Amino acid sequence: MEKVDLSVVIPIYNEEENLPILYERLKKVLDQLGKTYEIILVNDGSTDRSWEIIKELSQKDPHVVGVNFRKNFGQTAAMSAGFETARGDIIITMDGDLQNDPEDIPKLLEVLDEGYDIVSGWRKNRKDAFISRTLPSRIANWLISKVTGVHLHDYGCSLKAYRAEVAKNLDFYGEMHRFLPALSKAIGAKVTEIPVKHHPRIYGKSKYGISRTFKVLLDLILVKFLLDYRTKPLRILGGSGAILFMFGTLILLYLIGVKIFGGEDIGNRPLLIFGTLFFLSGIQLISTGIVAELITRTYYESQGKRPYIIKEIIRDQKFEVVNRGLVEEKVH
Ligand code: UDP
Ligand code: MG
């Protein structure tokens, strides 16, 4: 497979008016970079003419790669398919609705070259409705930064640049694309952000509403778990389980003592409920932790992943960059 320097990945869901303009603007910027490139347009089950337009563009210009989904699988899935298709050493992602500006791409690349693995855009001057979009997103960003320890102002900005070896090693399920910079911490990526331009949407409609904020918060719990306990789930589940189990046992022993030696009736004591509850949920948590440990092993082994990544090795006084532990590209 022929390599290129740069792959631009764009998920497309009903963006027929935007596509031709997007293509022209993007091409203008990319042609000036003096790099080889491809534009990967992933059609996420559009019901308008988007795919016809992508096909036309790809006929006209061999830089354009079209990927067509059978149905709408969502923006994250479209990005994932784009990453898999990408042949570039660097992958740029952006939206297909002209809200991101291709003119920011050279700046992203420049900063990436300073030694980062991910450069994320920050829509400092965001042009979306304040109450329904910008405000909830500010709160969410603050929370995500606190919880994950990866500090970005704007997780939701799609305009980002990734080194391919990092991008291809991120798993994304659900609507996880905004968490990629946070998840990349698990593989030791260096992440930074730069302010980028943002334009109001002129053609087509936004595909999301306020309900997204709540989904994002749920995902955050999973991300926290994946970041801190992915390789040691028993620590958190079993740890809290053990504490509960201990308390439960103590309470129950006490009650048994009261019953046998004190001859008191214990059936109506609230402590009995607590003791039983703690005892049982303790056992539950410990067993869940053990099951999670087993699943973790399957997770790493089935994908040929390792729970560590070696960056470089010095052998026979020679320096090798290995990146061992990152999944190598599948050879078909
Ligand atoms: N998108 C997609 N699949 C979806 C929803 C959105 O591929 O199910 C694309 C959409 O075409 C756009 C990008 O994802 O290129 C961002 O979507 P949108 O502009 O609606 O999000 P917003 O900017 O409002 O957060
Ligand atoms: Mg948009």
From TrEMBL:
Keyword check for Magnesium: no
Origin: domain of life: Bacteria
InterPro entries: Glyco_trans_2-like, Glycosyltransferase_2, Nucleotide-diphossugar_trans
GO MF term set: undecaprenyl-phosphate 4-deoxy-4-formamido-L-arabinose transferase activity
Residues in Glycosyltransferase 2-like domain copies: 7-169
Keywords: Cell membrane, Glycosyltransferase, Lipopolysaccharide biosynthesis, Membrane, Transferase, Transmembrane, Transmembrane helix
Biological process annotations from GO: lipopolysaccharide biosynthetic process
Transmembrane segments: 234-256, 271-296
Transmembrane as UniProt keyword: yes
GO (cellular component) term, any one: plasma membrane
UniProt cross-references to PANTHER family, sorted A to Z: UNDECAPRENYL-PHOSPHATE 4-DEOXY-4-FORMAMIDO-L-ARABINOSE TRANSFERASE, UNDECAPRENYL-PHOSPHATE 4-DEOXY-4-FORMAMIDO-L-ARABINOSE TRANSFERASE-RELATED
Protein name (Swiss-Prot/TrEMBL): Glycosyltransferase involved in cell wall bisynthesis
